Amino acid sequence: MLGPESSNFVMYDEELKKINQVSDKLLREANAKVIFLVDKNGQLISSVGETEHLDTTSLASLTAGNIAATGGLAKLIGEKEFSILFHEGEKDNIHISIVGGRVILVVIFDQRSSLGLVRLRVKKASEELGAIFDELAAKAAQEDQGGGPSPFAEITDDDIDNLFS
Amino acid sequence: MSFINYASREINCKIVYYGPGLCGKTTNLQFVYQKTSPDAKGKMISLATETERTLFFDFLPLALGEIRGFKTRFHLYTVPGQVFYDASRKLILKGVDGVVFVADSQEERLDANVESMENLKANLEEQGYKLENLPFVIQYNKRDLPNVTSVEELRSLLNPNGVPEFEACATTGEGVFETLKAVAKLILMELKKGGAGG
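Above: the input entities. Below: the structure tokens describing the complete assembly.
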């Protein structure tokens, strides 16, 4: 099968650990409250920081919608994309940026930090994250070529029916 | 494009409800939301106008249980049905794994159904998808109303390829879960066929 629907987005333990390390470091160095990564389709990839009271699933979906809408605006005025979005609130602010063209990095911060600091730290972390996502893409492509059997190859009708029982 | 997370052992899939304005896409999601146990669903988000017309999308995350040791999560989206929101519809179709077309069975909406179906095909093709290759089901909604087109006629206009189709009344919930189940099943079968990476 050809076309964009043929490539699933895959995440492995090893890469997730690396991603969380970079996110943790960014959280500390930027004095941020929460950091999360979302794929452009709205699926949450990882989150670190004070996430207990946050609806991260909804945040992920709306962030992706936001990036998609802003990307649409960019195209209408002849830009490729707007790679950084910033929303300023009374207490908390959200800094959103695109990493490696395919993943969205979201930083939530308050008055303990500043936009300048966040921008600076995000820039460095983006490079590291971009490299990890490159590795991940290469690994997924390799597994796809010659990897072992997929865990989903054995799915039966009963398995699926059980989901709805 | 499903998101397969080996680290947290989760599969995430995106289902989009498409169809003409006021056909009942949001109502489908609302019924699913009402009838799902709290631990299996997240918050339903509706980005709507003051008159409760969908402005950008509705979003409902559902966790359906495990399959082969992987938690399956489905993210349900609706598009805004009104013709002039086409730019938004295109955005929401990005990364879609399965599509539900909700048709409005009322006679006076026949043209709107056909137009919306053509719009779906065009918007998918613009992103490199082909409707024939995607998990796709059709729901003939509002069967409870008096002035409905026959299913045969709707089928001949909207479902020439014979994809799974369901009669429904989304306000009472009839046919809603049957539709969702059918598209989820097709998505998982696709996953089985394609394996982990394609």
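Note for the figure: Chain B has a mean pLDDT of 94.
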